[in-house]
Write a structure and sequence with these properties.
CATH topology: Conserved Hypothetical Protein Mth637, Chain: A
CATH superfamily: YggU-like
Number of helices: 2
Shape: globular
Mean pLDDT: 93
Helix content: 10-25%
CATH class: Alpha Beta
Structural class: alpha+beta
Distance between the termini: 23 Å
């Protein structure tokens, strides 16, 4: 089955496809990349020693209002395209991210 959206239900929560851009002045959601079918996130950290991945997890946890342990990077550690799992439902994630 083809992926149709950047966010899908998964177990007790959902998976979010992220198009990450490290090295930004600050971390922010920049919209949805329709071509890559991913949430665009600018990351206020450099991609060195995992700093950008850590900042992405921290930022999304803060934005979603959940503990960091409930946001897990499951794929794309060394790629700009990442998949994160969060323990919130799809509708709640959309609401909290404003997308």
């Amino acid at each position: 089955m083809e992926r149709r959206d950047f966010i899908e239900p998964s177990g007790e929560g959902c998976k979010i496809w992220i198009d990450a851009s490290p090295g930004a002045p600050r971390s922010e959601v920049a919209g949805v990349n329709q071509w890559r079918v991913a949430l665009q996130v600018r990351i206020g950290a450099q991609p060195k020693d995992g700093a950008a991945n850590e900042e992405l997890v921290r930022f999304l946890a803060e934005k979603l209002g959940i503990p960091r342990r409930r946001v897990v990077l499951v794929k794309g550690e060394r790629s700009s395209t990442k998949i994160l799992e969060v323990s919130l439902g799809v509708d709640e994630v959309r609401k909290r991210l404003g997308v």
